[in-house]
Amino acid sequence: MPSANLSGRVVLDVTGDDAEKFLQNLITTDLDGLDKGDLKPGALLSPQGKILFEFLVARTPDGLLLDTLETSVSDLTKRLTLYKLRAKVQIIVQPESVIQVSWGNKSGASENDSSVRDRRFPDALNVRRHYGTEAAPTADETQWMALRIAHGVAEAPFDYALGDAFPHDVNLDQISGVSFKKGCFIGQEVVSRMQHRGTARRRILIASGNANLPETGTAITADGRDIGTLGSVVGNAGLALVRIDRVKDAVDAGTPILSGETTLTLAIPPEHRFTFPVTTHEA
């Protein structure tokens, strides 16, 4: 069962009598559907529906934890504190967080295992997050990134920039990262409108190259026209944030899709439900 220590991540504890109600009214994840032992993705949006902060959320004995980017945890803490008002909530960063991820066909957690299952991945993969563990890792972050790529699981800052993407762009709607039934959260009106009108045009796709892919951030083009950007890369595989209407146009026309000099094949992640558009719409 491979395991890897993750760098650049930190745990933010949200505790207190009002912790769940407080977060439920702010973030995209439906906490009513968050079972003990599960870890689900989520985001705190701008009023315009863009992702300001991304995280994974799980229950703890005292409340909830947010597994988030170390580079943005200070700003996230300030933003949550701004919304707190008189709610009975404590927001505390665990600056020395040790976060390890494991995956493989080992059956679920043992009685003494406090890990949580990462619900962004199929159950059969048994992807688990471990907090505060000191077990020696048996894999590295490159292998973890390869697993994310294979299943189309995007993460900032590798695959998109905070403040520049809607939840649909990074497939949060496909992996229980945004709820359209729980009621209001910040940015909910914009995101719900995109869902009901089917207007999401950018998506994370899996990119396969005819050679090793260029570095993260390289433009993806078709017939000299930018259609997206390359994200996480391991060898000849990667993730790509692209305009799916323009990808469809290129495929239908037989136009090569390139990143640098490398020819790409772009595919919808295997467990995701969206499709390429039937017709195209210009910006």
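The record above closes out task 2.4. Task 2.5 opens with a second protein, given below.
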Amino acid sequence: MTVTAITNSRVQSAIQLASSKTGVDFGYLLGQAKLESGLRSDAHASTSSASGLYQFIDQSWLAIVKKHGAENGLSWAADAIQPGTGGKLSVADGNTKAAILALRNDPATASMMAAEYASDNKDALQGTLGRSVTGTDLYMAHFLGLGGAKKFLSTMQATPDASGAALFPAAAAANRSVFYGSDGTPRSLSQIYARFAAKLDGSTADAAATAAANTGFAAQALDMNGATVVTGAGESATDALAWASATLGKFGRGTGAAGTTAASLLRPTPDTARLAYLMLARMGG
């Protein structure tokens, strides 16, 4: 398996774990990540502060970590984020702020926060629109923020031919390829929505087909005494559970040199990363 394949497998395992914990559709989360970053956890936008697997901008990331960080083992981060002038979120200590923003590039944390964000947006949009919410609706909330998505979708229902750039000038300036055609003609709201729908559907279908064709990419969330175990490449559910039991038992008995254990935690391997998921789940993280 290539380095890219291994990386994608780990990313998909993180997404599956987030899906299983929140109930947000795995296919949607996987398609969104592929569309946003090409499944690259280190992706950075050139026109905004967007970063990571799901391309959260700084303020959106601080907001979702403030809201859902504590319940996902990030109390230190949630507590450090405070509202400032005009409701803008800030972190007093520069190093702490940098550490919180860097979490966007961790597949597990980014996937969990994206799933929490999608779950919140689904409930809010259904109340506003009075209909079932589609994956494209959720994507609009990620792209424009919840308030922007409500404005976009409500306006599109009434006047689908309205100019997206006129309604969202700042977003259009940062995302010209979304709001304008190759000839510079502004796209309508319905055109923008249709393009996102096609791209998201294509990414979701392609990712789902890849996962179905390669068990190394198909991450399965399994239950073990209330904890979640994620299967590895080509690994059966039985083997995954056996590995988790043996590995957790070994760490619980404290076998091996203390220095080796500490080094493993400081420089995680794929096995210790999987164990971390399991241990956090058992502790309610």
